[in-house]
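Per your request, structure below.
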């Protein structure tokens, strides 16, 4: 069992979300603007996070702007049924 699974869950509406999620802010370029320094590494990080049990990703249109949302879509679509993506 990964540490993510050991963290427990909470209810977000009708969804069960693990307490340990992934914050996508640092996927964008320096200072949270522009593309990442290593596009392939950013994609790999997202895929590994979900593979390890993360089912809650926090993002924002501001990151990039729009860069992290595009990376999430590229890395994970079609999305797993239990994945919750939140934005602010």
């Amino acid at each position: 069992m990964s540490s993510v699974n050991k963290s427990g869950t909470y209810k977000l509406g009708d969804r069960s979300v693990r307490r340990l999620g992934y914050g996508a802010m640092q996927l964008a370029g320096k200072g949270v603007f522009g593309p990442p320094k290593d596009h392939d590494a950013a994609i790999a990080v997202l895929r590994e996070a979900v593979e390890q049990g993360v089912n809650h990703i926090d993002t924002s249109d501001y990151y990039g702007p729009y860069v992290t949302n595009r990376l999430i879509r590229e890395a994970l679509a079609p999305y797993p049924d239990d994945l919750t993506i939140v934005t602010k």
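The chain has a mean pLDDT of 94.

Regards,
D.
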